[in-house]
């Protein structure tokens, strides 16, 4: 049974497996099961994908217009090949990011719609099936944040070069900071030792009273 005060859960200790409204017959339950899945599909999956596709098309058209405008500028063959390869890599990365986002988010939205339909027709759903489906879809959704990094590293030399360059800069900054701290510590120790030697020399030179 649903046991929490606000959102509820179907099994104690597994709050993320099958959340839902505490009152299965209330107004919020109708919104949660009948309307919220479709809203989530549009705002979580379809609208972001549409915006990313539109942005990619606009970027591609802008690049093509820019290339047509600078034809008067003399460029040698290696530079032209490098620019074409760079634009092709950027376009491939954008398309791959859109496809990964769509593949990892659409199943979650479809599962929500199927669950809403099953509840609307009064179909009994097994709790173990809900937990297993939700766990698998959660893992798939979390892959959206990790796969893009590996795809960029494995397919784009430009991204690898930029990533390695940023890593070197961070390493140098960390090394400089550590080196400065070490220098400051050594300088402080040397000053303390020098001050102690001077004081000892002064005490040694003073005549006994």
UniProtKB/TrEMBL annotation:
SUPFAM superfamilies with a match to the protein in the record: Family A G protein-coupled receptor-like
InterPro entries: GPCR_Rhodpsn_7TM
Keyword Lipoprotein in record: no
Transmembrane segments: 38-59, 90-110, 130-151
Localization per Swiss-Prot or TrEMBL: Membrane
Gene3D superfamilies per record: Rhodopsin 7-helix transmembrane proteins
Signal sequence range: none
Keywords associated with the record: Membrane, Transmembrane, Transmembrane helix
Coiled coil: none
Origin superkingdom: Eukaryota
PROSITE patterns: G_PROTEIN_RECEP_F1_2 (PS50262)
GO cellular component terms listed in the entry, alphabetical order: membrane
Sequence ranges assigned to domain G-protein coupled receptors family 1 profile in this UniProt record: 1-152
Name used for this protein in its record: G-protein coupled receptors family 1 profile domain-containing protein
UniProt organism field: Adineta steineri
């Amino acid at each position: 049974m649903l046991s929490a005060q606000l959102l509820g859960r179907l099994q104690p200790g597994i709050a993320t497996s099958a959340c839902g409204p505490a009152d299965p017959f209330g107004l919020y339950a109708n919104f949660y099961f009948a309307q919220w899945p479709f809203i989530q599909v549009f705002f979580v999956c379809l609208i972001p994908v549409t915006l990313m596709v539109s942005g990619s098309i606009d970027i591609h058209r802008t690049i093509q217009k820019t290339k047509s405008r600078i034809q008067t500028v003399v460029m040698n063959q290696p530079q032209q090949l490098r620019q074409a390869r760079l634009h092709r890599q950027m376009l491939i990365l954008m398309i791959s990011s859109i496809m990964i986002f769509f593949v990892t988010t659409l199943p979650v939205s479809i599962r929500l719609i199927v669950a809403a339909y099953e509840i609307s027709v009064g179909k009994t759903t097994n709790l173990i099936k809900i937990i297993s489906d939700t766990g698998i879809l959660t893992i798939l959704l979390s892959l959206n944040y990790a796969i893009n990094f590996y795809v960029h590293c494995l397919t784009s030399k430009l991204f690898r070069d930029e990533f390695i360059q940023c890593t070197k800069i961070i390493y140098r900054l960390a090394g400089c900071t550590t080196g400065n701290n070490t220098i400051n510590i050594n300088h402080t120790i040397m000053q303390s030792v020098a001050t102690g030697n001077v004081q000892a020399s002064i005490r040694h030179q003073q005549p006994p009273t």
